[in-house]
Specification:
Length: 279
């Protein structure tokens, strides 16, 4: 079942000091199944974060539609009721969890605040049970409920941020560079957690990253963006094995590894620059 449908999202920012307008998103369309996952990749400035922010209502699109479970979210943009409807349908996990968590509150306090705001009618006892369930879902020990963000590791803080998003029981979870600040071993554990969450809860994931290797671990499909345009979209395995667009080939070849060839990267960059010159 399709849980998220995005149709022809567009966003253009005015240029600074008389410069040309910047097209951050040009008719971006995709779908995500319940329990499925889409990766949006591209270098800095490609527009991937703008797309993520449009999905959750932090940036207003110029055109396009965002439909979750049959409900179009962009028709009613303003007002508290509209914001609450979006928040209960789609949540975002940011790159730096330390800035998205209230440093004055304990882990329990952060989660309780969300539950009270979005799950009216919860008794004190039921709220404690929900918090315990959320901590268990993200693999955190119950003793950490009394800890504050500065007392946790980066990986633990990101798990709390994920638990905070799950507290709303959203249909879709958007993760913007959610593991890029973590070391490799912690990244692997968070990615495994995300796979468990989408399989167990049936939540659709949109995973935004510049790292194709990371995206390949947690997505079913990948959309590649360059200068606001979706240059390629395919199933993850197919795109990683047989990238068709020169830009996608360049991204894959630029990732250092056992077979990394700097001269091949330079060749692809030159070919891509030539292709861009013909547009």
């Amino acid at each position: 079942m399709t849980v998220l449908q995005v149709g022809k999202l567009c966003k253009t920012y005015p240029g600074r000091r008389g410069a040309e307008p910047v097209v951050a998103a040009n008719k971006i369309s995709f779908e995500v199944e319940a329990g499925g996952s889409l990766g949006i990749v591209g270098e800095s400035g490609s527009g991937k974060t703008t797309v993520a922010r449009m999905l959750v209502g932090l940036v207003r699109p110029d055109e396009g539609t965002v439909t979750i479970d049959g409900q179009e979210l962009l028709q009613d943009w303003r007002g508290r009721a509209a914001r609450l409807r979006r928040a209960r349908s789609i949540q975002m996990v940011f790159q730096d969890p330390y800035t998205s968590l209230d440093r004055r509150l304990t882990v329990e306090g952060c989660l309780r605040d969300v539950l009270r705001r979005h799950r009216a009618g919860l008794t004190k006892t039921r709220c404690k049970e929900e918090i315990a369930d959320l901590l268990d879902q993200v693999g955190l020990a119950s003793r950490l409920a009394t800890s504050r963000p500065h007392e946790l590791s980066g990986g633990q803080r990101q798990r709390v941020a994920i638990a905070k998003a799950l507290a709303v029981r959203p249909k879709v979870l958007v993760l913007d560079e959610a593991v890029s600040a973590l070391d490799v071993s912690v990244q692997a554990r968070i990615l495994a957690l995300l796979n468990e969450i989408r399989a167990g809860l049936g939540i659709g994931l949109v995973f935004v990253s510049h790292d194709l290797a990371v995206v390949g671990e947690v997505t079913d499909r990948i959309l590649v963006m360059y200068q606001g345009i979706a240059v390629e979209q395919n199933f993850t395995a197919g795109l990683l094995r047989r990238p068709e667009h020169p830009y996608t080939q360049m991204l894959l070849s630029s990732a250092p590894g056992p077979g990394w060839q700097p001269e091949r990267v330079a060749e692809l960059r030159a070919a891509f620059a030539l292709t861009e010159g013909r547009r």
